[in-house]
Design a protein that fits this description.
384 residues, alpha/beta, Dihydrodipicolinate Reductase, domain 2, 2 domains, eight-stranded mixed β-sheet, six-stranded parallel β-sheet, globular
Length: 384
């Protein structure tokens, strides 16, 4: 029996990139096999969409795309498609979604056009005002739309083992510490380097670790958030391996090279995050730590080759656990496909739209705190 899918976006998130392991179509092909039927690919850049479709039609999963149409808008697809989609994969930039304002209301366009269609929405939920995101969340809830947001690290086998260790030992998290060092050399998309369109490195990229922080630490006391940055105009912020012309980005919208943030959780625990744009090549360096009485849990390289290091009471050495077959990108897509196919649903979604909006609000607090400290530093330097 075929499983009908809409693909929204012909870019790297849906079709893969040298920059990272993301590739939603590849995981859908693996999950659904011969049952996958891609009804259409929607992207305003129809030439790029046609190129991606051509590649798929010459590949091993060609049958899944045999009847795929290309449209530039959701309304075109709604007027032309003879079949009902079961799942829409929303892999487009955040400035076109997460709002009820025309042009940024992609989720609302989809649920109005295809009322029974579930949504898989990439993170972050938007790059616009959070209050608009909450209105979208309310509308999705009112329509009882099944939605998940792409915080795939929640589905990681290592992360779930960390959850079990905490639960089985009745631990209370004392603190979290996240470190995300980006390899930027091949990140050449100009819109990503412009925080007016991407939201910036915390809102768009480190959002995964902000979400993981909330997943373990709980709700954040937003007034407690503080941050400092290294900006593009400061000597430590000069990058030598950029393969694009950053002068095309207005100076006020260029990305901070390093952001260091800290905060309190509402239960009294403390969290911290360091995000850095520094490495050359394609390999990122990422770690996430949790501290509790008697325990230190350290997750290393969760995106590619996850390794969990555990210190337990009474043991001076680290326990090292590998997860060689784990693919959280696959697990998150597999989960929503299963939810669509099963009745009654199992409530297995780990990242709801409403919870993802909380993460979004949190990332904006970090961004604003960093911008405030940068302005303060500039003003201080100007008076010297």
């Amino acid at each position: 029996m075929s499983f009908n899918v809409l693909l929204i976006g012909a870019g790297e998130i849906n079709f893969g990139s040298v920059e990272g392991p993301w590739n939603h179509t590849l995981r859908l092909e693996r999950k659904l096999g011969s049952n996958l039927k891609v009804l259409c690919l929607i992207d305003p850049d129809t030439d790029r969409a046609a190129a991606q479709l051509k590649t798929k039609l010459s590949g091993p999963a060609a049958s899944a795309y045999a009847d795929c149409k290309i449209f530039s808008t959701v309304s075109e697809a709604a007027n032309a498609l003879p079949e009902t989609p079961q799942l829409a994969i929303v892999g487009v930039p955040p400035f076109v979604r997460g709002s009820d304002a025309p042009g940024s209301d992609l989720e609302l366009q989809l649920v109005r056009a295809f009322s029974s269609c579930a949504l898989f929405v990439e993170k972050p939920v938007s790059c616009g005002p959070a209050d608009a995101c909450w209105r979208v969340a309310a509308e999705l809830q009112k329509r009882q739309v099944l939605v998940t947001v792409g915080y795939m690290l929640r589905y990681s086998a290592a992360v779930q083992m960390m959850k079990r260790i905490i639960q089985e030992n009745n631990l209370i998290v004392m603190g979290t510490n996240a470190r995300y060092v980006m390899a930027y050399e091949y990140a050449r998309k100009l819109s990503w380097w412009n925080k007016a369109s991407s939201g910036g490195p915390i809102v768009e990229q480190a959002t995964h670790f902000c979400d993981l922080s909330r997943y373990f630490g709980g709700d954040v006391s937003l007034p407690s958030v503080t941050a400092h940055t290294v900006e593009h105009y400061e000597p430590p912020g000069h990058l030598k391996a950029q393969r694009f012309d950053e002068s095309l980005v207005p100076p006020e919208n260029r990305l901070p090279r390093l952001t260091n943030a800290s905060w309190k959780y509402t239960n009294g625990a403390v969290g911290s995050l360091t995000h850095v744009i520094a490495l050359h090549g394609t390999t990122y360096d990422t770690e996430f730590e949790i501290y509790a009485d008697g325990y230190r849990l350290k997750l290393m390289d969760p995106y590619n080759n996850p390794v969990l290091s555990v210190r337990r009471p009474g043991i001076e050495t680290e326990e090292i656990i590998h997860f060689p077959e784990d693919d959280p990108f696959y697990s998150e897509l597999s989960t929503i496909v299963d939810e669509v196919q099963q009745s009654p649903r199992r409530a297995a979604i780990l990242s709801t739209y409403q919870d993802a909006v909380k993460t979004y609000e949190f990332t904006w607090c970090i961004r604003r705190a960093g911008e405030h400290s940068a302005r303060t530093q500039q003003q201080s330097n100007a008076t010297k």
